[in-house]
Amino acid sequence: MMSVVPVQLCLAGKEVTDVRVRPGGQWVSGVVSEPGLHGAVSRLCMWSVAHHDVVVDLLVDPLPMAGRGLSGGVHCWDLEGRRVFITTAKEGIVEVALVDDVPARQHSLAFDPTRNWSTPAIDYTQSSVYAIADWCEMWKCTLDGGEAQLVYRTDGFAIDATAGADGMCVTWNRPHMPWTQSTIYPEPAITEVSMQQPRFSTHGNSFGFINDVSGVANVHISADRVVAHDVMIDDECEHGGSTWGPGQRTWCFNSDGTKVAYTRNEKGFGALWVYDRFTTQRTKVDKGIFGCVSWENDTLAALRTGARTPTQVVAYDMSPQKFGERTVVVQPGAEHWLTPEIEEELVEPSLHEAANGDVVVPYRLYRAKKPNWGVIVWVHGGPVDQWQVTFRPKFSYWLSRGWSIVVVDHRGTTGHGRSFQQQLEGHWGIHDAEDTVAVVRQVQRAFGFRSERTVLMGSSAGGLSVLNALGTSRTLAAGAVVSFPVVDLVDLMQGADPFETHYMPRLIGARDMEDPLLRERSPLSRAHVIAGTPLLVFHGDNDTLVPLSHSEQLRDVVNAAGGAVRLEVMHGEGHGFRDPLHIIREYSMTEEFLDELMG
To answer: What is the model's pTM?
Structure first.
């Protein structure tokens, strides 16, 4: 019999984010989050590198903030590893002092506890901590008991505080997004250049950042006493992803600034490399998708994941004798996902390309080991984002049921350089849908998946792409499943989301609210064609980014055109589902829908 992944394994379990090496290199710290009775419960822990079953709780009360995915921005260490500074939800930023590797005392710094703080950073004189408040202000607090002082404020956005001689941060202004044009305060912006991840070495003697001035997001290192001229690690692969939040760390210096560890995005796959600033030699350390890269003394640590690798905390011995020797420090999800029966269902994807006229559209194919039904073509959200080859429980769930999966990197997807990413601007709703159709047809021709065995899936912006792709042909697929899809671009242009609404005119190409493009690019204008494909739609009634009215309009208009739209409303949910019962319901109803489609 076919082994089938239980739906419970797709629920949020224990997760580790914001990994850092404690100065000295003997310990690795990180935020552990797990579901609780009243929401997620988090704590800051550290693990011994040599004896990783030795765990010390650094802060449990107040609850530390949690990082996001492979990012961080929650805590930082002083230069000796004697104090750690942590952002919390109720008390602002808390300092914890250690004695003999055990927390001895804690107190709250003078940051306003009512504000949302991120990315604490201590300066190399160890006299002040900098942090970002509410994505728009950078504050400084001296550690001798002084009051917090405002360093920088913007009417746009500010994230990722960095402390050198004085405070620095990444900042950008509307109508830009951080991936279209951003800078590192206090430097002025460079037109159409994106900056991210400013970083000093431990003792402040070396400085670098990532920008895409070459067309690819690569690490740049400023001249210093180590190397007397500026250096760009010139690469065809990107070293950082799109900035959707604070705390991304895909590169770092070692302690003395003589080496740099950096990640490579290899068309959705990934690897960790080291660059020697003296010799300019580049050395591959390991493969996988990495985040929260941190290096102190001979210990290089990171979060690591892959198609068959649930996210884990790893440490590499970077001494000359053991260079790159890997130790798995923590495997928070291993007890669920690495049993022999389930592990055999895990699949590594293969990389392919589809031609859409002169455009080459990359995609990754996960072939089910025991094929049963057909293929799911999945379109990521964003739309400026990418689903790299990380561990995705929902993929394993459908692969275990015999469905192969295709992940589309349509124009606008990150990881393929600035030009490919920006080709979507002014064309959202067209290029993404056309590229999706090209991939679907290529997969059907090359791998024998018939249209009646093809299903499209997407959420949010991915839902818009899926629906507009279906609007090109009644025979493209047997059905589609979309969650909180963008359906009405007129409504989206009038949204109140502070992060993205201002970007909509540039992304869509609409001049104003009366521009006919808004209705032309909305799936509602293709209802008569979409009606030829059965749809299952999920939407939360508390979604403020894409309101429930989008899916209600879709249901009403497509059904009026003779279609079959089944709308399932998740009560109390927003833009993405959190309640375990709702998630189980989503999987169960989707499986029932697919079974009906396949007869």
So the answer is: 0.95
